[in-house]
From TrEMBL:
Membrane-related topology note: Multi-pass membrane protein
Keyword Cell wall biogenesis/degradation in record: no
Record-linked SUPFAM superfamilies: MFS general substrate transporter
Protein name in UniProt: Drug resistance transporter, EmrB/QacA subfamily
Record flagged with keyword Transmembrane helix: yes
Keywords: Membrane, Transmembrane, Transmembrane helix, Transport
Secretion signal, residue range per the UniProt entry: none
Length: 529
C-alpha cells in the first residue's frame, strides 16, 4: 500500500503548538464527559426530564463517541488527519450551540449526540496527529502529556460544572466549549499553514464501508443495551434485542476485516501481545476510572455518607487528578527507554491497591484518611494513560497509527461504559439486599413501615430523613445508622469491582509483556502472511 507522505516542518516549537491545539480539544472532550453529570439536576428541573431522559443526556455523548471513534480515525488515515480533526471541532461546536440554546429535551439530546460525534473525531485523531508531529525521541513525553490532559479534564469536570451551575448557569458549560474550540481552531489554522503535521494519508486506500456498518451495529446497540439494562431489565426485549444485533454485528465485523484488503480494523495486529495489552489495558483503565468516578461522587454526596455538595465532591477528587497528571507527564521520560512490563504492571497494581484501600472508607472516615488513597489510584491511572497508548502505537506503521489510535480509544470508551454499568449493578444489588433487611427490621404492620418502605425505594433523601425524624428516637437512630452502613457497603461493592478489574489488568501485563522491547513498527510483519 502506497503512502502519500508530505514531510512536516515540525521542530520543537511546532510540536509544542500541535500539543497545545490537541490539549485544548482534549480538555473539551474530557470536560464534557463528566461536567454534565453535575448539571443533571438543573436539566431535570428545566426540561422536566424523566430518569431515562437524564441517563440519555450522558449516554448520547458516550455512545456516539464509542461507536464512531474507530471509523473517523480510519477516515483520518485515508483523507488526512487534520481535515478530520477540523471537522471534529466544527461538529462539536455545533453540538455545543444546540445544547447551549436548547429549549427542550429533544434539542438537548441532539446537541449531546453531535458533541459525541465531534468528540470521536477529536479523540480518534488527536494522538496520531501529535505522534506524527513529534520527533521519535520525544514521543514518549508528549504521549504522557496527552494522557495526563485527558485524565485531568475528566477529574476537574465536576468541579467546573458544579461551579458554573451554582454561580452562573448550566448553559455556561457549553459556552465554555465554544470559547475553547475557537482558540483551538485558530491554533489549528496556524498548524496547517506552517505544515507542522506531515501528510500521511494512504494514496490508494479504500474505506471499508461494510466494516464501518458492522462497527456501528456492534457498538451502538451494545452501548444502548448496557446503558439501559439496569433500568429496563436485563431480560427485557429492550436489552436482549440490541445484544443479539450486537452479537451478529461482531461476527460480520470479523468476516469483513478478513475479506477486505483495507479493513477498518486490522485484526492481525491483535496477535502482537503488546498491541493486545495496549488495547486491553486501556479498556481496564476506562473500566476502573468510571466504576470509581461515578460511584465515588454518589457516595460522598449522599446525606447518609459525607453529604458533600457537587463542588465539594469534585474538589475531593483533586488528589487523584493532580497525582495522575504529574505521573502522566513525568513517568514516560524515565520509563520509555525500558521494558513496559513492570511499569504497566505496577500501575495496574497501584490502582488495585488504591481501590482496595478505599473499601475501608466509611461514613465516619475523615478526608485526611481518604485523600492519600486517591493519590495511590491517581498514580496507577497516570501510568496507564501515559504508557499504554505509546505501548501499542509504536508497533504500527505510520499509515496505520490513526487506525490504532481509534481502536485504543474505542477500547477506553467501551471500558468506561461497561465500568459504569458493572459498578452500578454491584452497587444496586447491594442496596436492594440491604434495603430489604432494613425494611424487614421495622415494626410489622405499622403505617410507618409502609411509608418508609416506599420512601426508601422511590423517594428522595429528604423524604427519608423526614420520616426517620418522626420515629421513636432509638428506632430512628438505629435506622439512620443502618442506612449509613448500607451506603458504605454499596460503595465497597463498586470499589471491589474496580479492584478486581485492575488486578486482572496487572496479571495480563505480567503475562503479555515478557521479553525485550520489540523494535518500532514491528507489528507490520503480522500483516505479511
Amino acid at each position: 500500500m502506497k503512502t502519500s507522505q508530505t514531510d512536516g516542518n515540525s521542530g520543537a516549537g511546532g510540536a509544542r503548538m500541535v500539543l497545545i491545539m490537541t490539549a485544548i480539544c482534549m480538555m473539551v472532550v474530557g470536560f464534557n464527559t463528566t461536567a454534565v453529570a453535575t448539571i443533571l439536576p438543573n436539566l431535570k428541573a428545566e426540561f422536566d426530564l424523566t430518569p431515562s431522559g437524564l441517563q440519555w443526556v450522558m449516554a448520547a455523548y458516550t455512545v456516539a463517541s464509542a461507536t464512531l471513534v474507530t471509523i473517523v480515525s480510519r477516515l483520518g488515515d485515508i483523507t488526512g488527519k487534520m481535515g478530520v480533526f477540523f471537522f471534529g471541532m466544527i461538529v462539536f461546536a455545533v453540538g455545543s450551540i444546540l445544547a447551549l440554546l436548547s429549549q427542550d429535551a429533544t434539542m438537548m439530546l441532539i446537541g449531546r449526540g453531535a458533541q459525541g460525534a465531534g468528540a470521536a473525531a477529536l479523540f480518534g485523531t488527536s494522538l496520531s496527529i501529535l505522534t506524527a508531529a513529534t520527533p521519535e525521541d520525544q514521543r514518549a513525553s508528549v504521549t504522557g502529556a496527552w494522557g495526563a490532559i485527558v485524565g485531568l479534564a475528566i477529574g476537574v469536570g465536576p468541579i467546573v460544572g458544579g461551579a458554573f451551575a451554582h454561580y452562573i448557569s448550566w448553559r455556561a458549560v457549553f459556552a465554555t466549549d465554544l470559547v475553547l474550540l475557537a482558540i483551538a481552531f485558530i491554533i489549528g489554522l496556524q498548524v496547517s499553514k506552517r505544515n507542522y503535521v506531515p501528510d500521511m494519508r494512504q494514496a490508494d486506500a479504500r474505506f471499508d464501508y461494510a466494516g464501518a456498518i458492522a462497527m456501528i451495529m456492534f457498538l451502538g446497540p451494545l452501548s444502548f443495551a448496557l446503558g439501559n439494562g439496569e433500568g429496563k431489565g436485563w431480560g427485557s426485549m429492550f436489552t436482549l434485542v440490541p445484544l443479539a444485533v450486537s452479537g451478529c454485528a461482531v461476527v460480520a465485523l470479523v468476516l469483513t476485516s478478513r475479506l477486505s484488503q483495507d479493513p477498518l480494523i486490522e485484526l492481525r495486529y491483535f496477535r502482537h501481545p503488546r498491541y493486545f495489552m495496549a488495547a486491553a489495558g486501556m479498556f481496564f483503565t476506562g473500566f476502573t476510572l468510571f466504576a470509581f468516578f461515578v460511584y465515588f461522587n454518589v457516595f460522598v454526596q449522599s446525606p447518609d455518607a459525607f453529604g458533600y455538595s457537587a463542588i465539594d465532591a469534585g474538589s475531593a477528587i483533586l488528589p487523584l487528578s493532580v497525582s495522575m497528571f504529574i505521573v502522566s507527564v513525568t513517568a514516560p521520560r524515565f520509563l520509555a527507554p525500558y521494558s513496559f512490563r513492570w511499569p504497566v504492571a505496577l500501575g495496574m497494581g497501584f490502582m488495585a491497591c488504591g481501590f482496595l484501600l478505599l473499601m475501608t472508607t466509611t461514613n465516619t472516615t475523615s478526608y485526611a484518611g481518604m485523600w492519600w488513597k486517591l493519590v495511590i489510584v491517581g498514580i496507577g491511572l497516570g501510568i496507564g494513560f501515559s504508557l499504554l497508548p505509546r505501548l501499542g502505537l509504536r508497533l504500527l506503521p505510520e499509515e496505520h497509527v490513526g487506525q490504532g489510535s481509534g481502536v485504543i480509544n474505542a477500547f477506553l470508551y467501551f471500558g468506561a461504559t461497561l465500568g459504569a454499568v458493572i459498578g452500578g449493578l454491584a452497587e444496586s444489588i447491594t442496596i436492594r439486599r440491604g434495603l430489604s433487611e432494613v425494611i424487614n427490621a421495622l415494626p410489622a404492620g405499622s403505617s410507618q413501615r409502609t411509608d418508609l418502605a416506599h420512601a426508601l425505594t422511590h423517594g428522595t433523601p429528604s423524604q427519608v430523613q423526614q420520616l426517620i425524624a418522626g420515629l421513636n428516637p432509638d428506632t430512628g437512630a438505629q435506622l439512620a445508622k443502618a442506612l449509613r452502613d448500607l451506603q458504605d457497603n454499596a460503595f465497597d461493592s463498586a470499589m471491589l469491582v474496580a479492584a478486581i478489574a485492575a488486578f486482572v489488568a496487572m496479571m495480563l501485563a505480567l503475562m503479555l509483556l515478557k521479553g525485550p522491547v520489540p523494535p518500532v513498527h514491528s507489528a507490520v510483519d503480522l500483516t505479511k502472511d
